[in-house]
Specification:
This protein has 300 residues and is an all-alpha fold. The protein has one domain (17-25, 38-279): Ribonucleotide Reductase, subunit A, CATH 1.10.620. The protein has helices at residues 18-29, 40-47, 51-74, 76-84, 88-116, 128-143, 151-182, 188-218, 223-233, 235-246, 257-279. 41% of the residues are buried. Bound molecules: fe (ii) ion (FE2) (2 copies).
């Protein structure tokens, strides 16, 4: 397909648009280097953890590692659709998105190699509900875009990827990690990485909320499908959280599993509330969610 015009030599880039404001943030905050994070103390801490603590850390890393690889491998069909539609501002932002997911994959791989020092197959940590979401639903929703470019398919992809996988599962996982490690003064390298990963994820989730809102605002009849998918998919991360903590008779690190289920539901509710504003026809130029907050500020 030939180009008929270029945004930058005709209308100009919309610097005030949500995606370009997210791109600005990505250029400032998304440039950290996973290879520069010092993991030496993490290795020393790993060696003195109790067996069940080590098992929980490895279990969470196994979920993150596969999850980051999955989102890296599954984002391209969405970028392709957005590019084809000529949404240049969104495409510029999405270049940072894929690069950041690649770095997240890179970081957990370093952690496995240098801190855990294992090459074991960690697939045993992937429960049936995790497999349903990450092995099946996520790639299905994303790769459907190769043949179905409709707004409904785009919304379904973003609900699965940005709202459920990133917005509920990953966010809750990061929260669990920082709670159990930072509160015990353990693994400073991992804690640093999680802080940086969370910043990146907040932009990704913000973009997803922007995308779904844009689609629903253009065609409110799509809301019913979005709402149905949200209601159905939320069960999976909740089950995954149960699976993670259900594996232990006594909670490692003295964790209270209910706090994480509550955290997950809170994340979910805040994102749904944002999307409902689009359903109700509220147009907003704000960056969705908490991505406009200074980083490090508590979300909520
Ligand atoms: Fe990520
Ligand atoms: Fe992400």
């Amino acid at each position: 397909m030939d180009h008929t015009a270029f945004a930058t030599t005709s209308r100009g880039l919309d610097r005030s648009s949500v995606p370009l404001r997210l791109f600005e943030k990505a250029k400032r905050f998304g440039i950290w280097n996973p290879s520069a994070i010092d993991l030496q103390q993490d290795r020393r801490d790993w060696l003195r953890l109790a067996d069940d603590e080590r098992d929980l850390v490895l279990r969470l890393v196994a979920l993150f590692q596969a999850g980051e690889e999955a989102v890296t491998r599954d984002i391209l069909p969405l970028i392709s659709v957005i590019a084809e539609e000529g949404r240049v501002e969104e495409e510029l932002f999405l270049t940072s998105f894929l690069w950041e997911e690649a770095k997240h994959t890179d970081f957990f791989s370093r952690f496995l190699h240098e801190v855990v020092q294992t090459r074991a197959d960690l697939g045993a940590y992937h429960s049936p509900s995790y497999r349903e979401l990450i092995y099946r639903r996520l790639p299905t929703a994303m790769h459907r875009l190769a043949t179905d470019r409709s707004p409904a398919a785009q919304a379904a992809a973003s609900v699965t990827y940005n709202v459920i996988v990133e917005g509920v599962l990953a966010e809750t996982g990061y929260h669990a990690f920082s709670t159990m490690l930072a509160s015990h003064g353990l693994m400073p390298g991992m804690c640093d990485a999680i802080r940086l990963l969370k910043q990146d994820e907040s932009r990704h989730i913000a973009y997803g909320l922007y995308l779904v809102s844009r689609i629903v605002a253009a065609d409110p009849t799509l809301w019913a499908d979005v709402e149905h998918q949200l209601g159905e998919l939320i069960l999976l991360p909740m089950q995954i959280i149960d699976d993670v903590f259900g594996a232990y008779q006594q909670m490692p690190f003295g964790l209270t599993p209910e706090t994480f289920s509550e955290y997950a539901i809170d994340q979910f509710s805040r994102r749904v509330a944002w999307l409902e504003r689009a359903r109700d026809g509220v147009t907003s130029t704000a960056v969705p969610d908490d991505a406009d907050q200074p980083y490090g500020a508590p979300s909520g």
